[in-house]
Design a protein that fits this description.
The protein has about 180 residues and is α+β, with helices and mostly antiparallel strands. It has two domains: about 5-105, no CATH class; about 110-170, OB fold (Dihydrolipoamide Acetyltransferase, E2P). Helix content is about 50%, strand content about 15%. It is built from four helices and seven strands, in the order H-E-H-H-E-E-E-E-E-E-H. It has helices at about 5-30, 45-70, 75-105, 160-170; strands spanning about 40, 110, 115-120, 120-125, 130-135, 140-145, 150. It has a four-stranded antiparallel beta sheet with strand order 1-2-3-4, with no helix packed on it. A three-stranded antiparallel beta sheet has the order 5-6-7, with helices on one face. Strand 2 (about 110) and strand 3 (about 115-120) form a beta hairpin. The relative contact order is 0.15.
Length: about 180
Amino acid sequence: MRDDIDMADVYLLAAPWTVGLVLAAVALLLFPLKQTPGWRQVTPGVSYWAAMIFALALAGLIGWVWMFVGSSRPDGATQMRIAWWLAFLFGCGAAVMGWLILSLHRLKIAWRGETLRWSGQAAVPMRDLESLSTKMFGGTRLRFHNGAHLTVDGGAYGASALIEKIEDVNGLAPSDRPPEH
């Protein structure tokens, strides 16, 4: 390790990277997704895992360069400060992806026919939809007549099929889309 590095910077750099790994491990170990025959699920897709892995890899690579390689250029101190911030921000990206993966694992959203269920909520008929709205960052907010609320992450695997099914069941589908696809 380079002599000019403060250990507080190393710990601060490693914190979001570690949080991302721990959250993903908790999702996989404590909230495993179990396939129930006949039920479709909303799960973290390949893009979630790829974003997590690439963010961890970039944070690790840039952090390694910052800790062990450094720069001998005249503006090397500035370059290394920028490298530290890049590694930190990629680590924060990994932590955010870990949180999203854990959230989807904990929700356990599943549907079969016209019945929807998720963690902490009894089965809800899709026909009981009161409102459907789009959130600013791509999620869809569902509100049902019994007071139940569910926000479905639009980027998750199976989310678009679920939303299309709910639209079909409630007559909200665009006229050019064939029903029950």
